[in-house]
Amino acid sequence: MSESNRLRIAIQKSGRLSKESQKLLKSCGVKFNVNEQRLIAHSDNMPIDLLRVRDDDIPGLVMDGVVDLGIIGENVLEEEQIERQTLDKPSECIKLRQLDFGACRLSLAVPTEFPYQDAGSLEGLRIATSYPNLLRRYMQEKGINYRDCMLKGSVEVAPRAGLADGICDLVSTGATLEANGLYETEVIYRSMACIIQSTHEQSDAKQALIDKLLSRINGVVRAKE
Ligand code: PRT
Ligand code: ZN
């Protein structure tokens, strides 16, 4: 990989975090134009390149030092960190700060007719999720055995399709659960977007730019509080 003097920041290409991530950087004075067809957007006024990728790829790109910073949901970061811990792989990144967008929660939900009392009601049952590591950690803490049903999408239709008894999925308004005849029973993780930095060695110039950007982000986020 070629070492660049420019700071590389990974943001979500398109999705729930992409507009807010761009807006945040623009309000910090980073000027750039995004071409929807292109992976990279170069800033005109600062030595910064934006890498526009799938959100799931961002923690790995930061931890492996391919990019210097990333903007990502804490849910995706935490899932990747547990995964790396399990595999005994280092997760070389630090969370610089939580941001003020991307709020959601990872919750357990079951069909409306399910006689749910507590998480123990799921003992031995199958749970569909895209977050197997966060789910496993929660269920282990509670001492509950369950069976996995790993789905990258359409998690909310799994019970009706007969694939699982319950789900563990992201919720914000709760409308998706309701539309699929499910109700939320436990919040297992609360998440916001956050900005993360690779702990791989940086040049002094890059670190100074990161410090400047972070201080501007602090200003922008505080001004809205
Ligand atoms: O293509 P790419 O892989 O980059 O995107 P993605 O489809 O994996 O992610 P995306 O854009 O859906 O979400 C990116 C991040 O936004 C998530 O990792 C969370 O940190 C955050 N976020 C905030 C949410 C939601 N709110 C959210 N409501 N991510 C997903 N949802 C989904 C949820 O999975 C469910 O399908 O929205 C539905 C529930 O919403 P409500 O309002 O009906 O409860
Ligand atoms: Zn994704």
UniProtKB/TrEMBL annotation:
One of its GO terms (cellular component) is cytoplasm. It comes from the Bacteria. Its EC number is 2.4.2.17. The keyword Ubl conjugation does not apply. One of its GO terms (molecular function) is ATP phosphoribosyltransferase activity. Catalyzes the condensation of ATP and 5-phosphoribose 1-diphosphate to form N'-(5'-phosphoribosyl)-ATP (PR-ATP). Has a crucial role in the pathway because the rate of histidine biosynthesis seems to be controlled primarily by regulation of HisG enzymatic activity. This is ATP phosphoribosyltransferase. It comes from Shewanella insulae. The chain holds residues 1 to 225 of 299 of the full protein.
